[in-house]
Amino acid sequence: MSRISEPSVRRLSHYYRVLEEVAAEGKRMISSHLLAEREGITSAQVRKDLSSFGSFGRRGLGYHVEHLRDEIRALLGLDRRWRACVVGAGHIGAALLGYRGFADQGFDLVAVFDADADRIGRTLEGRVVRPVSQLSAKDGFEIGVIATPVRAAQEVADALVAAGVQGILNFAPRKLRVPDSVTLRAVDMTMEFESLSYALTHARAGRLSAGRVRRRPPRGRPRA
Amino acid sequence: MSRISEPSVRRLSHYYRVLEEVAAEGKRMISSHLLAEREGITSAQVRKDLSSFGSFGRRGLGYHVEHLRDEIRALLGLDRRWRACVVGAGHIGAALLGYRGFADQGFDLVAVFDADADRIGRTLEGRVVRPVSQLSAKDGFEIGVIATPVRAAQEVADALVAAGVQGILNFAPRKLRVPDSVTLRAVDMTMEFESLSYALTHARAGRLSAGRVRRRPPRGRPRA
DNA sequence: TTTTGTGAACGTGTTCACAGCG
DNA sequence: CGCTGTGAACACGTTCACAAAA
User: Fold this and answer.
1) What domains sit in chain A, N to C, each tagged with a CATH number?
2) What is the mean pLDDT of the segment spanning B119-139?
């Protein structure tokens, strides 16, 4: 297990979901081809990804569903719980706090902060909104989620770093600067809309890059 | 302007934002180096990206801020308005409908649909929630946004396609199947959390791929 | 001199194709 | 035979480095 590419890690998340589904269906083994099919990628890609982490499959048989699922869960760090806080008690903050799926995956959004005096003290999805000035290391947050307006985002990022978070998930449409020791991920909805707009605008002019269409492999046996 | 890569289009969105800021600051010209600095990429990348769309710069001077901004706006298809609808009147739907930024970029979220009888008829961010069964081609939606629970996502995607949308933005954490003629983009918050979790889990073991750190170019003149 | 535009070099991720094992 | 694991080939995106233009 040497250097793992980021796209590979993202695919791991997908494999994990498929495996959860397949496990629920009661299947015991799954082939790289079947795993790939649900994902829209090639079976070679699946095998490459998995083999870069270890030898999880059995030649001639495929992968043991539950075993592989557990291995991936551990690889992704989902076999533990993460303490996270949300900064920004607006619409997005509320949406995040209200979504049960995160807790199911081990992400506990245990606190909400906001700078707006009108919001402080009110309850949002069961958590009392605290003033952002109270953000400190003694709460032991490992992850900070930024759900503020753009103008506040960098300032909040700095505060989160000062509070000792190891990772930040940023929902504000702005590139943030954080020290190398802090991991940053961004969800940029505005950019996604714009990327869609670009694709639609250029779609009829020859289907340029309008959608990352991925051909399924020919599926027949290799010629010659 | 031949084949444009998707990463290149996404960077275009960033350039656009920087140019809006810089234009507001009253600057007339900007160099590829300055554009790159705000973005954390190399100036060569900026020039490559821009030159793949046309010759917008002037050697020795840089790029004219307002002109380049307008060119990119047109390239991204932001010089027009898009009719979009949101399916799913839950937290995420509400967050999207409540965010003014989309309208500012030309995306009009003109309607909300939901399958839940309790929600239908209620008002959400100024729009009356309509039954998802009413979704039809006569509303002329160009873009459909899926903000439903996972289990409903594929069904809703099919309905949107039937209603004639050209593009779909999916917020449900599930791979969707749509015809090639429809462009699909996905915002997967769950995956983003998991990617963060992976990075944090493996961070101390040698800083593998924990954060896509991009070095600024050496900045000195080329040696030799 | 400054800074763009771009072919060439490079690096990285994906696909192929087959050896190896069950 | 079926299917994984993997080196080799390939495709693609990024960076370099320099000629051309202002």
Assistant:
1) 6-75 (1.10.10.10), 82-183 (3.40.50.720)
2) 97
